Amino acid sequence: MTQADEAGLGAGTVRHTRVLVIGAGFAGLGMAVGLARAGEGDFVVLEKAAEVGGTWRENTYPGCECDVPSVLYSYSFAPHRRRGGDRASQPEILDYLRRVSDEYGVRAKIEFGAEVGGGRWDEAARRWHVRTVDGREYVAQFLVVGTGALHQPALPRISGAGTFGGPSFHSAQWDHTVDLTGKTVAVIGTGASAVQLVPELAARAGALQLYQRTPPWVLPRRRSRLSAVRVPATGRIARALTYWNAELLALGLNGPPALTRPLERRARGHLRRQVPDPELRRALTPDYRIGCKRILRSDDYYPALSRPGTEVVTDPIAEIRPDAVVTADGTVRPVDVIVYATGFRVAGPLARLPLAGRGGVTLQELWWRDGIATHLGITVSGLPNAFLLTGPNTGLGHSSLVFMIESQVRHVLAAMALVDRDGARAVDVRADAQADYHADLHDRLASAVWSTGGCASWYVTADGTNHSLWPGFSWRYRLRTRRVRRRDHELF
Ligand code: N01
Questions:
Q1: Which of 197, 209, 294 has the most ligand 1 atoms within 8 A of CB, as the residue to mutate?
Q2: Which of 193, 346, 468 most suits a substitution to test ligand 1, by most atoms within 8 Å of the C-beta?
Q3: Would the keyword Oxidoreductase be found if you checked this record's keyword annotation (predicted)?
Q4: Which residues contact 373 (CB under 8 A, 6 or more apart)?
Q5: Which of 77-86, 222-231, 287-296 is predicted with the least confidence, judged by mean pLDDT?
Q6: Atom of ligand 1 lying closest to residue 150 CA
Q7: Could you read off the pLDDT of 182-216 as tens digits, one per residue?
Q8: What is the pLDDT of residues 342-390, one digit of tens each?
C-alpha cells in the first residue's frame, strides 16, 4: 500500500472547518491564537495528547528548563517575564501554555486525543481531507501542520542494549516511578538535555557515569542585564533587548571563525574556572568550532562532573550487559539505571504523517524523489493550502524558535488573506519560486558554522545537508515571510 493509499479516507462522520491545525504545542497554539486574533473563528485544532504543551508536556526530566530567556521564549502577545532568573522551568512553561490556551479562548477549539493518521488534497473540491487514527474525519480548506520537529526519541543501536535488566529510558520519556536515590546511573549523551539533567542526577544518585562521545561547548548561563540594573522595563522592552542581544550571535554562527573565537575563549575560561582537574578538563575540551553543535549554557554542569562519585567516560561504549556498560577498552562498569540523553530523530514527525497533495503524491514521496525542499520552510509546491510550522530550516542556533513560529503564523494568515482577496479557493507555491529559495538557502548554509565547524550534529544529515537551521538573522526570516508574493504562487 502506498502512502497515498494510506491517506485515503474511510466512511464516517465528517466535520467541516475552514482551517485545521494539527498539534497544540507552541506552534499549533500560536496558530490558533493567531487565527482567533485575526477574527477567524472557523478552525479546529487536533491534538493527540490530553493536554496542550507539545515538547513541554513530553519532556519532564529532572532539571528540564528552557535555555532561552523566557521573555523571548514566549509569544510576543504574552511575554513571559519572571521574577528571579530569566529561564523558565518545564512545569512553568507548560503552565504558561495552558494559561495562553485558556486566556485567548482557544482551548475550546482543541480536540484532544485526536492523533492524525494522514490527509489528502481533494483537487476538485479544493479541500483537505484529514483522518485521525481512530477514524474521525475532517474536511478543511486550509491545513496547518504544527507537529514539532523533535519529539521522536532516538535510541542508539548498542549491542546488548535490550538485555539490560534494570530500568532504562530516554530523557524525553522519563520514568518517574524509578527512584534514583543511591543508585548507580549511566547517562549516555552530552547534549542540551544531558547538560540540564546531569547536575540533578549527580546530586541524587549514588554514582553517576556520563558517557561522552563528543564534549559540548558550555558557556556560563546568561545573566539578565535587565534584572541586574533593575530597569522597570515592560515585557515588550525586555523582549526587544533580549532579542537583539541574541541576534548578535547569528553574526558569529554565520561568519568566519574569528568572530566566534571570543566566545570560545569565554567557554574555555568557564571550564578552567569550574574544573580544577587538568585531565578532566582535557576530556571536556571540544575540538571543533563553537556553535557547530548547539551552544549549551550551564553553571552547574561542570561542577557536577567534578563531584566525587561522578565519572566522565570517554571510551566508546562497546556493549551493554544485563547489569553493566562495557567500553571498548574492556572496562565493565556495573550500573543500576541507564538514561539515554541521545536526542531525537529529526525527520521523524513529518515522515510519519502521510499527506497526499496534487496527483496523490505525498510530501514524503516528493522529498524522497527531489530531496527535502520547501518555500520558507512553510509551504511545499504540490501541497496547496498546506502550511508547515517549524518546518525544515526554520530552527535557530542562537535565538527563540517562538519568534520563527510567529513569523510562520503571520505568513499563513497572509496566504489565507491572499486567497480570499483573489476570490480563489487555493494557493500553491510555484516550483520555480521554491527552487530559487532552496538554492539561495543552501548557498548561505554552506559557509555557516554547522557545515564548516568540524563536528557532527543532528542539524546536518549524514550526506552533509542541513535541513534543520535557518542561516543568519531571524529578523531576515521575519522580513522574508512577511508578505506572500503573488508572483511566487499559483492561485486557483
Ligand atoms: O540531543 P542531542 P538533546 N553513544 O542530539 C550522544 C533541543 N533541546 O536531547 O555529540 C554515545 O543534542 C550525542 O553524541 P555526539 C535543542 O534543540 C532544547 O540533548 O553525537 N553517545 C550527543 O551528545 C537540542 O539541540 C532545550 O557525539 C551518543 C547526545 O547523545 C535538541 O533538543 C533543552 C550516542 C545527543 O544530543 C536535542 O538535544 C534540551 C551513542 N551511540 C533539548 N548516540 C532547551 O533548553 C548519541 N549520542 C531549549
A1: 294
A2: 193
A3: yes
A4: 366, 367, 380, 434, 435, 438
A5: 222-231
A6: 32
A7: 999 999 999 999 999 999 999 999 999 999 999 99
A8: 999 886 557 678 999 999 999 999 998 888 999 999 999 999 999 999 9
All CATH 3.50.50.60 domain ranges of the chain, comma separated, are: 14-152+346-491, 168-216+293-340
> Best of 190, 253, 312, 399 to mutate for ligand 1, by most ligand atoms within 8 A of CB?
190
Q: pLDDT for 127-140, tens place per residue?
A: 999 999 999 999 99
What is the atom index within ligand 1 of the atom nearest the CA of 455? 10
144 three-state secondary structure: strand
pLDDT over 70, % of the chain: 94
- The CATH number for 14-152+346-491, chosen from 3.30.1050.10, 3.50.50.60, 3.40.30.10, 2.60.120.260, is 3.50.50.60
pLDDT score of 223: 64
Ligand 1 centroid to residue 341 C-alpha, Å: 6
pTM comes to 0.95
If pLDDT is split at 50, 70 and 90, which confidence band does 224 have? low
CATH of 168-216+293-340, one of 3.40.50.300, 3.50.50.60, 1.10.10.10, 3.10.129.10: 3.50.50.60
Helices then strands, counting H and E runs in the chain, come out as 16, 20
Distance 408 CA to ligand 1 centre (A): 26
CA–CA separation, 253 and 273 (whole Å): 25
Count of Cβ atoms closer than 10 Å to residue 41 Cβ:
11
Name the nearest CA neighbour of 340 among 191, 217, 207.
191
CA 307/CA 304 separation, integer angstroms = 5
pLDDT at 108 over 50: yes
From the CA of 214, give the closest atom in ligand 1. 27
The one-letter amino acid at 382: G
For residue 395, the ligand 1 atom closest to its alpha carbon is: 17
